[in-house]
Amino acid sequence: xxxxxxxxLTSAGITEALxxxxxxxxxxxxxxxxxxxxxxxxxxxxxxxxxxxxxxxTWAGKRDAFRNVQVPSVATLRPQPEESVNWDSSENxxxxxxxxxxxxxxxxxxxxxxxxxxxxxxxNTGNEFIYPDNFREGLDEYLRYTGQLGEDGTAxxxxxxxxxxxxxxxxxxxxxxxxxxxxxxxxxxxIFVSIDDHEVHNLRLLxxxxxxxxxxxxxLVVLTNPKGRxxxxxxxxxxxxxxxxxxxxxxxxxxxxxEDDEVEDNYPEIDAGGRFRLLELRNTHRQFGKFNxxxxxxxxxxxxxxxxxxSKDAPGRVEVWPRWDDGFEGCWTWGVDKATNENSLLVxxxxxxxxxVYRKSYSHNEAGEVARKKLKSILIDATFHTxxxxxxxxxxxxxxxxxxxxxxxxIKKLVGLSGxxxxxxxxxxxxxxxxxHAVLDLxxxxxxxxxxxxxxxxxxxxxxxxxxxxxxxxxxxxxVIAKLQENRHSRAGGNPAIQNALDLNPLDSRLRxxxxxxxxxxxxxxxDSSNFKIWRSDQAPQSAxxxxxxxxxxxxxxxxxxxxxxxxxxxxxxxxxxxxxxVESVAVGGHTAFSVGDGDLLICLEPHLDRDTLRALFAHKPxxxxxxxxxxxxxxxxxxxxxxxxxSHGIVFKTV
Length: 656
Prior knowledge:
The strands form seven sheets. This protein has a ten-stranded mixed beta sheet with strand order 3-23-4-22-21-5-8-10-9-20, with helices on both faces. The protein has 19 helices and 28 strands. Helix 7 runs parallel beside helix 8. A hairpin with a 2-residue loop joins strand 12 and strand 13. It is an alpha/beta fold. The radius of gyration is 30 Å and the shape is globular. The protein folds into four domains: about 55 residues, no CATH class; about 350 residues, Rossmann fold (3-Layer(aba) Sandwich), CATH 3.40.50; about 100 residues, no CATH class; about 120 residues, no CATH class.
């Protein structure tokens, strides 16, 4: 019984989750615990082809790259409060580490939680990209690269287009990361990927496979350098691309709230309902008309003295049909019932010698929300140029220590497309931290409380002040926060009461206007090996004596050199709770435990436990209690009784 209560210290198993779904949907295809392909073929009948020729993307190493997805991570994310800003209150995350390992670790706590992903991956231009291409990358390779293992490790690969594996190497790097990222998206979540013309064709096919061709939304063109790249051959390239895919069906269109000046320019008329513009009720597309929309071909009547619209004729009214100037019989955009019931929104205007019917389109709906607009598929705004991104970065950290960061305004526009103000935004190729900059700025502008998760490899630099890119990421976000805090102090106007209220309640919208960002902070974490000794079958001793010695070493599986905070956050992560969860210390039977989130999880890291302490834990009525296995001192009877008592209280009890 007690073996069943062990908390897995690995990341979520992708294969196990898929098999569980198959067992639930089609248990008849399993035989002796495995998928029986003969039964699968019988279940699918004519829908399975054993010798298919299909359209698709394949490359050298694809199978091994996918196997990389299926290998669970045994790593952890160690908290770095000293690198953080407002650790206790912030829900933003900046994680230093290889993004493949980190994405595996995020599968449990953030599955289906992320609304938007933006990434700007290496463009595969023949320069070095730091991600290894040997398919066996993992925690050991990462630890060697970062100098945490004895060997001098390096993951740098110069992927020249003469290598014969030029495209394959890049695809092997991208495939598992995109696969894992998809799992984190909400059903109506969206991913944006910046790319140039070296790999856009392969990336499109790859994302068709991972996200589904039916979930392709757009391939945007972004004007990044209007002067063009003078060193390019034949043509001077001025643009990059943005591929846009969704996780599933979108609940609503991607759009942006119109700016104040746009509202003033686009909605020139005013009545009791507010600003509005007039849109012709006649359908302006000639592919629709009386010939195929006969129910929308009917007469309306305009009162020539007031311009009011009616569905019936009367003295002083003129009959109007949805007819084009050249006589083409078109149709209305509204049916007769809607036109009758909402005739207050309709108005007639005399244009030349003809009466036309228009509908009022207001700038704000009944809830006070401003009208929205769609982005064009070619993004030419000057704020999207690369030089603007460089200027925004250099204004925070002078010295040109990071080249060609993406402009914050571009990411702000993409984040704003969802229309929601409490989304989670993920960037697992974080670079200089532009995505966090954009999220913080947008929150300041509209009073939102969006949260970001950044992941950045500690890629080495030649700058002793910022020895890795991850150092640059954190420092940039710190300086953005400092700038926004200056705005907050400025708004407080030196009033200590207002400032104190803002500092104590940074997320309370009653205390802040739209010129104040909500969550001004982040929690920093760093990828590392587990805080517990994890048995690895691939490293098991060969002799019985060695095995006995190894088992003795693993009897106490807690690494003494790590602290309670390290262990605490590993258990939070691997129990499926978010890293941003609130943590409070609680007294239990003369000891200390940690209450996580809303108190549904209690974690006790005491090295010795007795029945009174365990009962004190259960008295807090959590959903789950986690304790160290070594705390039972080998007392299996106490452990068994504890499990039974927890079950009697409806509590899940686990040990590590």
